[in-house]
Amino acid sequence: MSNILIVHAHPEPQSLTSALKNLAVDTLMAQGHEVQVSDLYASGWKAVADREDFMETALPDRFSYIAESRHAFASGTQSADVAAEQHKLLWADAVLFSFPMWWFGMPAILKGWVDRVFAYGFAYGVGAHGGERWGDRYGEGTLSGRRAMLAITIGGREPHYGERGVNGRLDDLLWPIQHGMLYYPGMEVLPPFVIYQSDRLSEIEWPSVAEAYKRRITGLFNDNPIAFRTQNGGHYDGQQVLKPGLGAGENGTHIHLVQPGEPEEVLDSRAIRARTAV
After folding, report:
1. Residue 183 neighbours by CB distance under 10 Å
2. Is 208 exposed, middle or buried (0-12, 13-18, 19+ CB in 10 A)?
3. Distance between alpha carbon 105 and the CA centroid of its chain, in Å?
4. How far apart, in whole angstroms, are the C-alpha atoms of residue 47 and residue 114?
5. What is the DSSP letter of 131?
6. In this predicted model, what pLDDT tens digit does every residue of 63-79 receive, in sequence order?
7. pTM for the whole thing?
8. pLDDT by residue (tens digit) across 86-133?
9. CATH 3.40.50.360 residue window(s) in the chain
10. Which stretch of DSSP H or E encloses residue 42?
11. Which carries the bigger pLDDT value, residue 188 or residue 164?
């Protein structure tokens, strides 16, 4: 059995989003998994990243959150709430993020959780740079080996978030979260579970939604993740630009997904010679 962390961001315990969170807890525990929940509103999570996050100051003359984050993580002087959430992430085999889409993104309290918990040295600033390698990120990093999935409630209609929808493609709206916040530190990201027109869901419709979510939860460790390209798999050049010949026929964020027929890893001539010699 596995360890599952649910990071939940909704202010109303009786909301549809909270019902999904409760369903996930019950389903996962019934399957024998260990579950922890970080209920950000219920716990009064501090969302603002500022000086108060640090027990001591490395650079007292000019405040730099990045520099202070790096110092605090390395010296073990982070605030207790941040360190506790990092321990939960390292404990977890998978993380579910439960939230409503507000103004085309996550609630501010959840963004504040990412800002504070994903510290320098923990989620970024990891690994060595050299040649085409820019540290351990996008498929590598501290959180490698873990899976993540978003469970999102959206008030709008599904066609509004389609390929030609007025709100833009949902995959593009979620790109900063799924690719930028979760895949960056190494987590494999599953396609999101989404409920559209969530404020209009009736009691009659709930059972089918609940069953659909249970199926997704059951596949948490078996379903295929989104096929993001790994940063250090040979797809990008020394400037971290996708190499010519890759992503043909696609544009926008689509080019950063492995396309049908493409290898997941692209070797340059030196790597091929090195592997052949072995």
Report:
1. 26
2. exposed
3. 13
4. 9
5. T
6. 888 888 998 889 999 99
7. 0.89
8. 999 999 999 999 999 999 999 999 999 999 999 999 999 888 887 778
9. 3-225
10. helix 40-43
11. 188
Q: Name the token pair of 176.
A: 């900063």
CATH class of 3-225: alpha beta
Residue 66 phi, psi (nearest 5)? -65, -45
Contacts 24+ apart (CB under 8 A), 221-227: 221/2, 221/93, 221/94, 221/147, 223/190, 223/191, 224/190, 225/147, 225/188, 225/189, 225/190, 226/178, 226/183, 226/189, 226/190, 226/191, 226/257, 227/257, 227/258, 227/264
How many CA atoms lie within 13 Å of 149's alpha carbon, on the beta-carbon side?
A: 23
Considering only CA atoms, which of 163, 171, 222, 218 is closest in space to residue 192?
171
Per-residue model confidence as pLDDT tens digits over 135-186: 889 999 999 999 999 999 998 898 898 888 998 899 999 999 999 999 999 9
What does the block give as tokens for 43?
A: 């716990």
